[in-house]
Amino acid sequence: MTKDNVKGCLKGSALTLATLAGVIGGVVFGICLRTRTEPWHEREVMYVSYVGNLFLRMLKALILPLIVPSLIAAVGSLDMSISGKVGGRAVGYYMATTVLAVILGIILVTVIHPGSVGTSDDEATRVGESRNVTAVDTLLDLARNLFPPNLVQACTQQYRTVLTYPPQKVTEGNGQIRDPENLYSWKISGEYVNSMNILGLVFFSVFLGVTLAVMGEKGKPLLEFFTCLSEAMMTITTWVIYMAPVGVFFLIGGQILEMDDFSVVAGQLGKYFMTVLLGLFVHGFIVLPIIYTAMTRKLPFRFIANMTNAFTTAFGTASSSATLPVTMNLLEEKNGVDQRISRFVLPIGATINMDGTALYEAVAAIFISQVNGMELSIGQVIAISITATAASIGAAGIPQAGLVTMVMVLDTVGLPAEDVTLILAVDWLLDRFRTAINVLGDSIGAGIVYELSKNDLEGVELNKKTEGGFEAVPMTEIEDDNK
C-alpha cells in the first residue's frame, strides 16, 4: 500500500467518512446538550435543529424535479422490448425481499417474545394519539392516490379517507346505524393532506415515458428535454450532497435533544427495540447480500461500502424519498450502474419497496398483541404478513409514515388503533434504522437489475449502431483481430 493509494482512498471516501462522523458527532452533541440541568425549551431545540432542517428542505425540494424527469427519461430511453423485463425484475425483487422481511420479523418476534413483561416497570405505556382508519380504507386510498385527479395538486398533497366519530349510537332516517364501537359504521369523508403523492407521480411518469418510447422520433424532442432536466438536477444534487455531514449532525443532535427520556429504550420497550433492530440487521446485512451474491455472482462488500453515504443520510433524514438524490448519485458514480436502470428502478423502489417498514410493522403488530395477552392463530399471523406487505407498499417515504399504515395492520387482527401509541416512544429512532435498510434494499435491487439487464442493454446499443449505419461485428472476429 503506497502513500498515493492511501490519499486516493481518503479522497474518494472523504464525503462518506465526513457524513458518518456527522452522525456520530450529532449523537454525542445531543447527549452533551442534554446534560444541562434546566429543561430545553422548544424554541432552543428549534435553533439547534435549524441548519439540519435547511438541509432536509433542500433534499426534499429535489425529489419532485428529480423523480419525474429521471423516470420519464429512463423509461423513454429504454427499448420497449426490454423495459418490461427491467420493470418485471425490479418489482419481482421488491416483492420477494418485502415478503422475506415480513417472515423474518414474524419469526424473531415469535421466538424472542418481547411483549411478555416481567415487572410493572417494563410495561409499555401509551404516548400521543392515533388516527382512526380501517384496512379497507387504507388500501382504497392507495389505489386512489395511484390515479391523482390533478397532477399539480399531487405535487403537494395526497388523498386520505376520514372517519367521523359518532358521539353515541344513532339510527339515521334511512335505517343506517352509526355505532361508536364499529369503525365501519362511521360517517365517511375525505381530505387532502400536505404530503407529496409520490405514488401517483411515479405512475404518471412511467406512463409518459412509455408513451414517448412508443412515439419514436416524434417523442424525441420532449424526451431530450426531460433527459437534460434530469442531468441538471443530478448536478444540483451533487452540490447539495456536500452539505450532508453538517446537515445530518444538527438533525440528529436536535432529535436527541427533543427526546423525552433515554431510559425508555433500555426499559419499557427495550426487548421490542432490540428485536426490530436485530431483524433489520439480519435482513439488511445477511439476507440482502446473500441475494445479491446469488443473483450477480459477485461479492456485495464493495457495492455496499460505496453506498455508505446514502445510508448515513437516510439515518439522518429518516426519509427514503429525501435520500433518493444521494442514492441515485452514488449508484451511478461509484457503483457504475447504468443511468437508464438507476433512474427507472430507484424511484419505483423508493415508492413501493419498504423492507424495513414491512419488518417493523409485522414485529410491532405481534408485539402489541403479546402486550394485550392475545394469542394469535396461524391464520392471523398469515393475515398480518399479507397486510404488513401491502401496508409497506402504501407507506410514504417520509419520516414515521409507517405509523399511519400500522393502524391497518392492527385492524387485521382486531386490535384497537390507539395501541399504536404503545410504540411511539421509540419509533423516532427505529424509523431512522428502518429507513436506512429501505435505502439499502433499493440500492441492492438496482444493482441486481443492472447486472441481470446488462446483455439486454448491450443488445439495444448494438442495434442502435447498426440502424445508424454501423455494421455489427461479431465478438469472435474482434478477438481474432486483437490477436
Question: What does this molecule look like?
Answer:
It is a single chain. The protein contains 19 helices and 4 strands. By secondary structure, the protein is mainly α. It has one domain: Orthogonal Bundle (Proton glutamate symport protein), CATH 1.10.3860. Strands 1-4 form a two-stranded antiparallel sheet. Strands 2-3 form a two-stranded antiparallel sheet. Helix 7 packs across helix 13 (320-333) and helix 13 packs antiparallel against helix 14 (339-352). The two termini are 34 Å apart. The model is unreliable at 118-122, 126-130 and 469-483 (pLDDT under 50).
Mean pLDDT: 79
Total strands: 4
- Estimate the helix proportion, in percent: over 70%
The CATH H-level superfamily is Sodium:dicarboxylate symporter
Give me the Rg, rounded.
24 Å
Q: What is the name of the CATH architecture?
A: Orthogonal Bundle
What topology, given as strand order, has the largest sheet? 1-4
Could you spell the SSE succession in H and E letters? Answer: HHHHHEEEEHHHHHHHHHHHHHH
Q: Please, how many helices?
A: 19
Shape: globular
Spans with pLDDT under 50 lasting ≥5 residues? 118-122, 126-130, 469-483
Describe what is shown at a glance.
The protein is mostly helical and 483 residues long.
Features of the shown structure:
single chain; two-stranded antiparallel ribbon; 19 helices; 71% helix; 4 strands; 483 residues; mainly alpha; disordered C terminus; Proton glutamate symport protein
